């Protein structure tokens, strides 16, 4: 009986701890979502931790409990964005799509995630400054993205599907530049009638058709 009593006594705090942990994760996620929106609207430098705390419904000290600095919060926001994108890309590749086909599908999904696109557009422009806390993140991101596009183009070339005269290095950079540029044009077009808005996925797919032969 004493063993049962001890088990009962030890499991109750565990459940409470799990409940508190879940609430903490939920609150942390709320803060990240609020930061995504505000960083996208006014940029990293234009947003304050107090503004983000107010938007997420927590006190300033409550926010600091999760993120001690604005840079730490920015790192969490970028990690959140990467995790979502990488999960989508990996899932599509596992289903048999090429990386470039998965990229088109990602651009299609991004048309339903305006705050994420606004965040990327705002931060990537700010981060050209070497003093920006996200500068190295974007340097690494472009190197990685271009390398992934180049690797996929090389596979197309090996399969005899790359159109004559296509320079793989140039095309890889152009694909990533096109995707990012289309995001800005899409954001600018959102005030127009639906039929006049930029379709990022369709335009990216159309470019790929210019350099890749059909199967």
Automatic annotation (TrEMBL):
HTH tetR-type domain span: 25-85
GO molecular function: DNA-binding transcription factor activity; transcription cis-regulatory region binding
Stretch list, region Disordered: 1-23
Pfam family for this entry, one: TetR_N
Biased composition (Low complexity): 1-16
Keywords (A to Z) from UniProt: DNA-binding, Repressor, Transcription, Transcription regulation
Classification via InterPro entries: BetI_C (IPR039538), Homeodomain-like_sf (IPR009057), HTH-type_TetR-like_transc_reg (IPR050109), HTH_TetR (IPR001647), Tet_transcr_reg_TetR-rel_C_sf (IPR036271)
DNA-binding region: 48-67
Protein's recorded name: TetR family transcriptional regulator
Source species: Serinibacter arcticus
Organism taxonomic ancestry: Bacteria, Bacillati, Actinomycetota, Actinomycetes, Micrococcales
């Amino acid at each position: 009986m004493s063993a049962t009593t001890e088990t009962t006594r030890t499991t109750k705090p565990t459940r409470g701890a799990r409940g508190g942990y879940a609430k903490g994760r939920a609150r942390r996620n709320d803060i990240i979502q609020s930061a995504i929106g505000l960083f996208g609207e006014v940029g990293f430098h234009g947003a304050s931790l107090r503004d983000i705390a107010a938007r997420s419904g927590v006190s300033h000290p409550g926010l600091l409990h999760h993120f001690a600095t604005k840079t730490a919060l920015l790192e969490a926001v970028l990690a959140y964005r990467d995790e979502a994108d990488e999960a989508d890309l990996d899932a599509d590749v596992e289903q048999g799509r090429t990386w470039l086909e998965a990229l088109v599908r990602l651009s299609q999904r991004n048309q339903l995630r305006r705050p994420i696109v606004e965040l990327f557009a705002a931060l990537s422009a700010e981060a050209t400054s070497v003093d920006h806390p996200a500068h190295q993140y974007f340097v690494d991101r472009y190197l990685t993205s271009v390398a992934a596009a180049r690797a996929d183009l090389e596979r197309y070339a090996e399969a005899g599907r790359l159109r004559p005269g296509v320079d793989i290095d140039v095309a890889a950079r152009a694909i990533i530049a096109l995707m990012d540029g289309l995001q800005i044009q899409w954001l600018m077009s959102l005030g127009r009638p639906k039929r006049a808005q930029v379709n990022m996925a369709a335009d990216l797919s159309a470019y790929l058709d210019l350099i890749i032969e059909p199967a």
